[in-house]
Each structure stands twice: as C-alpha cells, then as structure tokens.
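Quick question, first post here. What does this chain look like in 3D?
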Amino acid sequence: MRKKAWREAGAAYALLSPTLFVLLLFIIGPILFIVFLSFHKVQLLGATSFEFVGIDNFKRMGGDLRAKIALWNTIKYVIIVVPCQTALALILAATLNAGLKGQKWFRIIYFLPTLTSSAVLTLIFMWMYNQNGLINHVLAAIGLPTYNWLGDPKVALSAIMAMNIWSTAPYFMVIYLAALQDIPDSLYEAAELDGANALQKFWYVTVPYLRPVTSFVVIMGLIGTFQLFDQSYIFSAGSGGPDNSTLTIVLLIYQYAFKTLGTMGYAAALAFILALIILMATWLQRKFSKEESLY
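> Answer (accepted):
Ran it through. Tokens below.
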C-alpha cells in the first residue's frame, strides 16, 4: 500500500510540476527576492553589490514625506473608487437584468471600456481632460466653470478616480449580472406577496443574496486600486504631479527602483509594506463582511 501511495504521489507531483515550476519562478521567487532586497542597499550599475543594512530601509519611510503623500493619495483613491465602482456595477447589472429592450446591445456597449487597453483609455481621457478638451467644452456650453483637470492639484487625482470608476465598473457589472440571473424568482414572488415594492425587493432580496459576490468584487477592487500605476504615470509623465497630487505608492516604488540610483532596496521595502497593507485590507474585508447568502 505504501509503494502504491508513493507512486500516486509521484504521479500527482509530476503532473503538477509545470504549474509548480511557474509558480516558483514567477510568484514565490520574486516575492522572496523582494524580501531579500528590502534588507539591503543594492548597487546594480557597474559591479553589482548587495550591502546588508538591516531595517534601515524601513526606518527611512518614517522621514520620507513623498512616501507619506503617496500612501495618503492611494488610501483616498481606494476609499472612493472601490465603493463607487461596486455600487455602479450593481446598479448597471440590476438595470440590465430588469428585462429592458435591447439589453444585449447595452451590455456590449457598457463592457467595451473593459476591452480597451488601460493606456489607450488614459490617453483618450487626457484629451478629454485637456483645457480645450471635450469636458471643458461641455461645461462651458451649459454655463458651468471649466477646470485645468491635469494641472490643478485639487482635481487631478479626482480625474483619475472618475476615469477608473467608469472603466472598471463594467467588468464587475458582468459578474453581478451572472449572479442576478441565478436568484430564484420565488424569492421575488414571496416579497411581492408581502407587499414589497421594487426598491424593497432590491434592498431586502437582491442585495443580501449577492453578499458573496459583493465580497469578491470588493476584494478584487481593493487589490486593483492599491496597485494604481499606469494612469497616474501617463497623466503625470511619471512625476506624480502636479505637486505630488497623483503620486501613488506603486509609482513611487517605480521612481525609487528605476529613476534614482542606490534606492532599489528602499523601493523593495516599500513594495513589501504595500503587500502587507493589501493583505491586511483583504483580511479585514473578509473578517467584517458576511459572505454567505441569507438564502
């Protein structure tokens, strides 16, 4: 029996070996290397060297004003974008699930932003946000004040938020739509017998039933928003401006890793802390949300 068990285990690991190799090479390996770098001062140009500095890279964060600004910008972005994209996705999905005519075409139209490259979307919105762009022309036409969307520190991050809410909600809408079509009609019929109107059925039947899906959507949203990089990089040409208003943690990590000499180890320490923040935020979300459906 023991020989048979060993043979079965060997066969299983042989089948799993390609996946395990990829996991080790591209996931576990880089994570361990980042942890290694975070405790070293790294020199990559010329003669490569790794000087052990202990927790000095982590101590440096306390006096790094740009790191504090980047963290605060990222937190603001997460707090606003995740709830908004989740709510918008649910509303769009519920609207499409209501049996409207032409809902297949609306579904395609809503989902198109998700199929478009993030860089292309960002360039399109840069044109729209330009001082002579479409948004300011519309605002001026209806008598509202225009803004320097890309140059004003007070609105630059909000402009990125609006773009990402619009572009990411359709992806989560499709997830919600699939879950909505799985809700038994008998639940709505029972609610109608109790005298519930459309809003009450949505709040007391649809929303509770979708709790597991909402938990998944929020977790995916948290992970994605904490890693904001490309839109901020393109909007600010890699600087995080104006006045550090679009500087995010990932963009700062990029700057320290590839734009500043001798700070690769510090960038690795920032990346390590960011990973811990994402893990903690995900754990808290799972802990304080009830994932099981009520039905």
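The domain at 62-288 is CATH 1.10.3720.10 (MetI-like fold).
The beta strands are 40-43, 49-52.
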